[in-house]
Write a structure and sequence with these properties.
The structure is a single chain. The chain has a 3-stranded antiparallel sheet. The protein has one domain (27-107): Ribosomal protein L7/L12, C-terminal domain/Adaptor protein ClpS (Ribosomal Protein L30, Chain: A, 2-Layer Sandwich). It is an alpha+beta fold. It is elongated. It has helices spanning 12-21, 42-51, 57-70, 80-96, and strands spanning 29-35, 72-79, 102-107. Bound molecules: L-tyrosinamide (TYC). L-tyrosinamide is lined by residues 34-38, 40-42, 45, 64, 67-68, 101.
């Protein structure tokens, strides 16, 4: 019962008690992807990254340009419910503005 944990914060006794009693598993993580298209304005994609994904201005511009140049970009990595909420919020903003921006999520193999 000396399993290594990610991060810090739990002392050894706490970690051993948790493992014995409940065997908590790390939740699966999902990548949220923004897909390129020919019509959504760059500034709109940056605005989604600022407000939905809480990126800095410079990260938002980098991620938008990566999608623009390669076809898609990872906007963030989240647990399932958070990822679903980000996808829904992004798709709602896009459809309210009549832009075809596509946002999807995929389970991470190793994220
Ligand atoms: N390709 C779009 C344009 O030239 C901009 C864009 C970037 C759209 C990223 C979607 O995920 C996207 N206006």
């Amino acid at each position: 019962m000396s399993e290594k944990r990610r991060g810090t914060g739990g002392d050894v006794a706490t970690v051993e008690k948790q493992a014995a009693a409940t065997k908590l598993k790390r939740p699966r993580l999902y990548r949220v992807l923004l897909h390129n298209d020919d019509f959504t304005p760059m500034a709109f994609v940056v605005s989604v990254l600022l407000h939905v994904f809480r990126k800095s201005e410079s990260d938002a511009v980098s991620i938008m340009l990566h999608a623009h140049e390669t076809g898609y970009a990872v906007a963030g990595v989240f647990t399932r419910e958070i990822a679903e909420t980000k996808v829904d919020e992004t798709m709602r903003m896009a459809s309210e503005s009549n832009y075809p921006l596509l946002c999807t999520m995929e389970p991470g193999e190793d994220v």
